[in-house]
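Example for tutorial group B:
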C-alpha cells in the first residue's frame, strides 16, 4: 500500500466511523506490520503528538494492540476484523441513539401537549393521500398501535409476508390486547408459508384467522371499522405506492362490506389441502353459502357441465331447489345432460325442485332485457322454493345470450345489481364461455368488472390473459 493509497483508503474507511487521521494511522500500521510511534507518524503523515492521542482510541476500539517488545511497538488487527469491529460499533451506537431518541420523543410529546395546542381532527370526516413511503409505514404502525377491536387486511401472498415481518411488534401487541386479526390472501402454489410466518412474527396466534381467495379486487386495511387504508396499486409492498387514508364512515363501510363478502367467499387452509380436482370441486360446492355469487369461466361445454351438474346434483340431494337458465345449450340438451348424470329430472320437476328455463323465459323476454324484472323473477323463484319447504335456492345461468344480443354493458350492470339490489339469499353461479368474453370489445375490463361484482372466480380452463386452471 503506497502512501498515496493511504489517503484514498482513509477517505473510504472514515465512512465506518473513524476520523481521517485515525484511518491514516491505522492503515499505516497495516502497511508497516509493527512499528514505533515515530515511524507511524512519518508514514501516515500525521504529527507525532496527534499519533500519541489517536493510538489509545484505536486500541480501545480493538483495531491495534501493543507488543511485549522493548521498546514497545504497535501492530494493527487485520483489515477484515477491523471492518467487522467498526460495523459492530456502528450498530451499537445506532441502538443507543434510537433508545435516546425514543426517550426524548416521550419527553417532547409530554412537554408539547402541556405547552401547546395540538391540531385536532375532531369529528370531521377526512381523506388524505400518503405518497412518501416513510410516512406510509409510520401511518400503518400508528393504526396498528391504535387498534382495539379488529384488524382486517386484504392483500396478496407476497405482501402479507412482508407485512408480518415488518410490523411483527405492533401486531403482537395488538393480539395481546385482544384485537382480532383477519387476513384474506391468495392461495399458495405449494407449501403454505403464511402460518409459519405468523408463528414467527407473533408471540401468540390467538385471535388470528387467515383465509384464501384466488382473486383479490384490491389491497386494503381496515382498523376497528373506524379507519381504512387503500392501496392505489396492487404492485409492490403496501407502502410502495401512494395510499388513500380515510375515516369517512360511508367510505369505510364500503370496504368493510367488501371484506365481509370476500371473507364469506374465501376458504380456510384445510380446504386447500384437498387433493384432486373432483374432490376440490365437491368441497367448493359444499362450502358455498347463501348469497354466494360465483363466476364460472369455461372453455368447453364439457368443462361447464362438469361443474354445473355436480352443483345441481348436490343441491337436489341436499333438499335445495334449482333453477337453470339456458342460452348456449337448449332446455332439452340440459335436461338430457342432467339425466345422464344420474338425476331423475321428471321426479324433481314434479316436486318443484328443478326448473330448466330458456333465456327467453327469464333474461330476454319479448326481445327485451330488464334488470329489475330479472331480479324480481329470482325473488319469485326463491319464494316458491321456500314455500314448498326447500332449504333454499341454487341458481345458475348461461350468459351467452347477452353476447349474442350485444347486451354486454347491460350484463355488467345486471351483475352489479345482483349484489347491490338482490337481497334474496340464494346461491348463484353465472357461467361465461371464455371465447365469448374475449371477443366482447375489451375483455380485460369486462373481466375485472365481473370479478368485482362476484368476489370469487371458478376457473375450469387455462388462458394466459384471464386465469389458470383451478377451483378457487
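The residue assignment follows.
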Amino acid at each position: 500500500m503506497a502512501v498515496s493509497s493511504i489517503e484514498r483508503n482513509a477517505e473510504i474507511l472514515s465512512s465506518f466511523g473513524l476520523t481521517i487521521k485515525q484511518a491514516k494511522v491505522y492503515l499505516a500500521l497495516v502497511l508497516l506490520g509493527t512499528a514505533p510511534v515515530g515511524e507511524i507518524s512519518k508514514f501516515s503523515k500525521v504529527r507525532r503528538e496527534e499519533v500519541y492521542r489517536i493510538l489509545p482510541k484505536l486500541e480501545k476500539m480493538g483495531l491495534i494492540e501493543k507488543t511485549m517488545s522493548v521498546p514497545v511497538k504497535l501492530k494493527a488487527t487485520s483489515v477484515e476484523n477491523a471492518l467487522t469491529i467498526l460495523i459492530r460499533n456502528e450498530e451499537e451506537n445506532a441502538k443507543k441513539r434510537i433508545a435516546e431518541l425514543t426517550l426524548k420523543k416521550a419527553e417532547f410529546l409530554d412537554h408539547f401537549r402541556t405547552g401547546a395546542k395540538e391540531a385536532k381532527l375532531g369529528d370531521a370526516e377526512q381523506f388524505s393521500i400518503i405518497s412518501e413511503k416513510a410516512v406510509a409505514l409510520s401511518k400503518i404502525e400508528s393504526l396498528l398501535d391504535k387498534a382495539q377491536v379488529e384488524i382486517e387486511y386484504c392483500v396478496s401472498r407476497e405482501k402479507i409476508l412482508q407485512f408480518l415481518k415488518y410490523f411483527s411488534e405492533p401486531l403482537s401487541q395488538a393480539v395481546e390486547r385482544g384485537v382480532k386479526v383477519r387476513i384474506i390472501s391468495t392461495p399458495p402454489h405449494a407449501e403454505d408459508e403464511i402460518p409459519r410466518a405468523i408463528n414467527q412474527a407473533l408471540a401468540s396466534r390467538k385471535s388470528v384467522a387467515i383465509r384464501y381467495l384466488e382473486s383479490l379486487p384490491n389491497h386494503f386495511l381496515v382498523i376497528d371499522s373506524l379507519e381504512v387504508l387503500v392501496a392505489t396499486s396492487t404492485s409492490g409492498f403496501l407502502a410502495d405506492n401512494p395510499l388513500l387514508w380515510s375515516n369517512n364512515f360511508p367510505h369505510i363501510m364500503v370496504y368493510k362490506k367488501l371484506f365481509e363478502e370476500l371473507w364469506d367467499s374465501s376458504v380456510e387452509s384445510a380446504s386447500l389441502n384437498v387433493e384432486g380436482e373432483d374432490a376440490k370441486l365437491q368441497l367448493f360446492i359444499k362450502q358455498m353459502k347463501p348469497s354466494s355469487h360465483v363466476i364460472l369461466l369455461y372453455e368447453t361445454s364439457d368443462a361447464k357441465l362438469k361443474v354445473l351438474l355436480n352443483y345441481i346434483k348436490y343441491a337436489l340431494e341436499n333438499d335445495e331447489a334449482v333453477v337453470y337458465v339456458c342460452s348456449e345449450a337448449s332446455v332439452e340438451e340440459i335436461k338430457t345432460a342432467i339425466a345422464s348424470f344420474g338425476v331423475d329430472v321428471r321426479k324433481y320437476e314434479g316436486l318443484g325442485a328443478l326448473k330448466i328455463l330458456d333465456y327467453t323465459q327469464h333474461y330476454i323476454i319479448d326481445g327485451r332485457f330488464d334488470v329489475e324484472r330479472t331480479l324480481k323473477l329470482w325473488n319469485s323463484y326463491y319464494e316458491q322454493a321456500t314455500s314448498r319447504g326447500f332449504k333454499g335456492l341454487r341458481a345458475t345461468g348461461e350468459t351467452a345470450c347477452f353476447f349474442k344480443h350485444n347486451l354486454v354493458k347491460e350484463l355488467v350492470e345486471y351483475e352489479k345489481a345482483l349484489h347491490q339490489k338482490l337481497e334474496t339469499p340464494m346461491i348463484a353461479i353465472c357461467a361465461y364461455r371464455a371465447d365469448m368474453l374475449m371477443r366482447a370489445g375489451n375483455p380485460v375490463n369486462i373481466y375485472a368488472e365481473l370479478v368485482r361484482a362476484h368476489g370469487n372466480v371458478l376457473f375450469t380452463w387455462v388462458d394466459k390473459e384471464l386465469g389458470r386452471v383451478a377451483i378457487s
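The chain has three domains: 1-118, 127-269, 275-459. Compare this with the pattern of hydrophobic and polar residues in the output above.
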